[in-house]
Specification:
Length: 337
């Protein structure tokens, strides 16, 4: 059995990075205006983004040898016993890419909880600096596995552990001048079940019989239910290059972001899946999904049996397709024979 508790290999800067799909706008709003938020018609469409000159597609673009030194990867093999013993392998890869600093973190951990073996996998994509994502790596799974009802009522334990972790982070970050936050997309493998919990726009996709099956839904401000929740809490969304909560944040759920509470929350959406029939899952930050569809990602690695090699392949392909973000990916392959 391999027990892994990995540290992030990058010395990430805490300075605010340029806006991106899941990042803050550079000018943070210290509070929402007292006036009523602007009401957008339900059928409003965003203005088309500025069209930049298209570069010729170069599918054979390779990461340079110098950049390869910054592409960090690894993996392992383990077993989890449910109604039958399931063997699985996992691999991870993480790359700063074209960003000036690294704000992605990830976790792969095999632990024993109440005499049951449990596997944890997570990808945490920070914005406004790396400290929130790093905090989640160190504390989220620790809080979850320590929950007294983790085995008996795992879904409730996940919701409560996410809230506990967010509250504790916000309390610890009170003295910080700069606001920061992070998405969190996690998978718990417990017996024959996969429990996927998502906050933000990192994503989990499964492969079943060669087909891509989404196991999470991105939290974007223009999602109709998310927009309604934000407006009912007294917040608003506006178009600023993309839809943003209060004109600031391009995800509607995240850890941290104290200036945007209670509009931006860390309450996860949870989806449960039986591992029977699942060939593999991909957990990745939006640096991958911004340039690869679910279907393309699954097709790209479905014939690669080595999970670490599959994760590296996805990172390299996203970079070759022009991803301008940090890119982090975890692949978990199942063998239930």
């Amino acid at each position: 059995m391999l027990i892994s508790n990995l540290t992030n290999p990058f010395d990430a800067s805490s300075s605010l990075s340029p806006p991106r799909g899941d990042a803050r706008a550079e000018a943070l709003a210290s509070s929402f205006p007292s006036a009523d938020p602007p009401q957008l018609p339900p059928t409003i469409e965003p203005p088309p983004p500025t069209q930049l000159p298209q570069q010729p597609q170069q599918p054979d673009v390779m990461i340079s040898s110098g950049d390869l030194d910054a592409l960090f990867s690894g993996g392992g093999i383990s077993f989890v016993t449910g109604s039958r013993t399931a063997k699985f392998s996992y691999g991870y890869s993480s790359f700063k890419g074209k960003r000036p600093s690294m704000e992605d973190f990830y976790e792969t951990r095999i632990s024993e909880v109440d005499d049951q073996m449990v596997a944890f996998f997570g990808v945490f994509d920070g914005h406004g600096g790396s400290r929130t994502a790093e905090y989640l790596k160190k504390n989220l799974f620790k809080n979850l596995s320590a929950h007294p009802n983790f085995i008996k009522d795992t879904k409730t334990a996940i919701v409560e552990a996410f809230k506990q972790t967010d509250d504790e982070y916000l309390n610890e970050a009170k003295g910080q001048q700069k606001d920061a936050g992070s998405t969190a997309t996690t998978v718990v493998l417990l017996g024959d079940r996969l429990l996927v919990a998502n906050v933000g726009d990192s994503r989990v996709v499964a492969c079943r019989a060669g087909s891509a099956v989404p196991l999470s839904t991105d939290h974007k401000p223009d999602r109709s239910d998310e927009r309604q929740r934000i407006e009912e809490a007294g917040g608003f969304i506006i178009w600023a290059g993309t839809w943003r909560v209060g004109g600031v944040l391009a995800v509607s759920r995240a850890f941290g972001d104290k200036l945007l509470k209670p509009y931006v929350v860390a309450e996860p959406e949870i989806q449960e899946e039986e591992i029977d029939g699942v060939d593999f899952i991909i957990i990745a930050s939006d640096g991958l999904w911004n340039v690869l569809s679910n279907k393309d990602a699954v097709a790209l690695v479905q014939d690669i049996t080595d999970a670490e090699a599959a994760a590296r392949k996805l990172i390299k392909e996203a970079y070759a397709r022009g991803s301008s973000d940090n890119i982090t990916c975890v692949v978990v392959r199942f063998d239930s024979s």
